Amino acid sequence: MSKTLKRSIFFLLVILLPLFYSSIATAEETPLALGDYFLSLGNYDAAITEYKRLLFFHPDDARVSEVYYNMGFAYRAQGLWQDAIAEMRTAVHHATEKEKKSEYQLALAVTLIANQNYDLARLELIKVMMRAPSAPLYRRTLFLQAVAYLYQFRWEEARKAMQNATADERLDALFASAINTRQKSVKVAKILSAILPGAGQAYAGSRLDGLNALVLNGALGFIAVDTALDGHYVDAALWATTILFRYYQGNLYHAGKAVEEFNEEGSRHAAENILERLQEIAQQP
Length: 285
Hints:
Layout: H1 3-41, H2 44-57, H3 64-77, H4 81-94, H5 98-114, H6 118-130, H7 135-151, H8 155-163, H9 169-179, H10 186-195, H11 199-203, H12 207-229, H13 233-282
């Protein structure tokens, strides 16, 4: 090999090797960068594809926990709750920094609350508290604990959680109002409807449903009695024990449901007022 050719090859190596290693680094960065780009655009399927590509080619990458978290966020944005929960749990598992692990667990708790898994959400929040998080994370954890309790209408537990986070008098007054919210009795509603069909629904505030139950059961009862007075005792008995009994039982069931809905609506309204105040407090500097 001539000296000129050797010098040419050496020159090419000097020029091309840095470019080669640069291309390798770029190849590693591209899936994460593309994934983040697609995520910012709301193109969640494309983002997930890029993240999975990075995980496939670089399973031991230091950014693995971040990738799993971003995938969980993308799934959550699409309403794919189980996938989101699974990916966020994996992100927590791979996170090595204490604060980062706590942040991912708080995001996981939010996802669990959104999916109505309140007990599991509180379990994740307990894990965060056991890690002795920083003051901002501690406060966020208390807020989320209160939210999880609120969605279950467990006023006292929510109030206790928030007392450790803030001494807001307006919030305390809202909790007191929620605790003292008037609850109606399912048993009383059923007794009233047993005595007079529709009375239980009226007691629960559903006057139109109560009137409908009264008219329907009254009409069926009249038909049964009138049939018996005409001497058609077998027909009257069949009518009373099948159709009339069915609607009478339905009247009792709906009286109980009306009270449950009344109580839930009152609790939901109280919870919404508290959540609005919590949001205002969270936005304060």
